[in-house]
Amino acid sequence: MTLTGQLTNTRTTPRRKVLVSGAGVAGTALAFWLNRYGYAVTVVEKAGTLRSGGYPIDVRGTALEVVRRMGILPQLQEAHTDSRRFTFLDGDGREVASVNPHTVVGSVAGRDLEVRRADLTEALHTAVRDDVEFLFNDSIDTLDPFDHGVDVTFRAGSRRTFDMVFGADGLHSHTRELLFGTEKQFHRYLGYCFAVFTMRNTFGLSHEITMWNTPGRAAALYAVGDDDEVHAFLNFAHLDPPSDGFRAPEAQRNLFATTFADAGWEVPGMIAAMRDADDLFIDVVSQIRMPRWSSGRVALVGDAAYAPSFLTGQGSSLALVGAYMLAGSLAGRDAAAGFAAYEHETRAFVTVNQDQIGKGGATLFPTTVQALKQRNDMLRNLSTMPATVGRPAHSALALPEFTSTR
């Protein structure tokens, strides 16, 4: 097995074995860096293969330096989707404003990247697949930490022991639940429910986003390149989190259909497509806020530890930066010291990005007539502004250079 970028120092002790739960952005990036620092890495993923769907995602600011150091920046630049226009419509489907997407989300044209999620996960996986063990169609069932490691039982029935375990299994992390308890302790509901799915691009859209709004409701069509399909998005304000019955698929569809029953523009067709979509994903808009990201020999990274919500557009960037900082903090340190350094050096960056709520994405979804009018006035002003200056939060952490003492 060829070790990509592996350190060449001579080892006198066996490589420490670690387990990463989740083969998404955070988990695969973490596997890359842990391998770089000399760990024997296993990644377990409950899906049968890498996930190919999902909305396009952004790589901005500090995260760009992470992917540059991984050697995958040229691939991502080639995969850049280059969205060129973001058009906003009123309730009757009339244009309010058409702006450069970068001015809305706070990214920098010509530098920050937007790529299909599948392109990012494939680039990450390709960079590490020859050096790391991947277990698909499996997941962690139980964790039993002890002084010098963690005994893990997998759902497929096997049992193995690792020196450390890392939860990179997303917003609804099972690893986090096993270690810290129920999600509701850390879940911060942000007042919206959303649905995403794909549908046929019968609208002639290309490299653009079109969003319809009324107070408390939004519907958008997102054309990535010249694809035959568009990403459809529905979002509505809901004061309190929906009841437990919201988790039932048919109840979810019915709630969105009822909420948008009188909507105009292309929304009726979107609701019909939602009914039949085989890639429909529905959830509430939320963040994960935790007082600590580790316990003993188990640590969390990415959305499992600090999901910022799509309203910030920083989920993938935080995952990439967090993975780099976690693995680097462990280089030459034991678990306790490494996890402490990871939290100390990374938390301020995470917090300032989570606090971007209301400074960008949230303003896209006004809940009152007055707030919608103010947003529309802001958009008309934005339409005359160049997209040259990004948000300071995106680059608020200068990446350290880590070296291993192994």
Sequence stretches where pLDDT stays below 50 over 5 or more residues: 1-11
As a percent range, the share of helical residues equals 25-40%
Would you count the extended β strands for me?
18
Rg (C-alpha, Å): 22 Å
- Multimeric state of these chains? single chain
Report what the structure shows.
The chain has 406 residues and is α/β, with parallel strands linked by helices. The protein has helices at 25-36, 62-70, 73-79, 101-105, 117-128, 174-180, 249-259, 267-276, 303-306, 315-330, 335-354, 369-382; strands at residues 17-21, 40-45, 57-59, 85-89, 95-99, 113-115, 133-136, 140-146, 149-154, 159-162, 164-167, 187-200, 208-214, 217-223, 229-237, 281-288, 294-295, 298-300. The strands form four sheets. Strands 5-4-13-14-15-12-16 form a seven-stranded mixed β-sheet, with helices on both faces. It has a six-stranded mixed β-sheet with strand order 7-2-1-11-18-17, with helices on both faces. Strands 8-9-10 form a three-stranded antiparallel β-sheet. Helix 1 packs parallel to helix 10. The chain is globular and about 70 Å long. The two termini are 20 Å apart.
Question: Helix and strand layout, with pairings?
Answer:
Blueprint: E1 17-21, H1 25-36, E2 40-45, E3 57-59, H2 62-70, H3 73-79, E4 85-89, E5 95-99, H4 101-105, E6 113-115, H5 117-128, E7 133-136, E8 140-146, E9 149-154, E10 159-162, E11 164-167, H6 174-180, E12 187-200, E13 208-214, E14 217-223, E15 229-237, H7 249-259, H8 267-276, E16 281-288, E17 294-295, E18 298-300, H9 303-306, H10 315-330, H11 335-354, H12 369-382
Parallel strand pairs: 1-2, 1-11, 2-7, 4-13, 11-18
Antiparallel strand pairs: 3-6, 4-5, 8-9, 9-10, 12-15, 12-16, 13-14, 14-15, 17-18
Helix pairs in contact: 1-5, 1-10, 2-10, 10-11
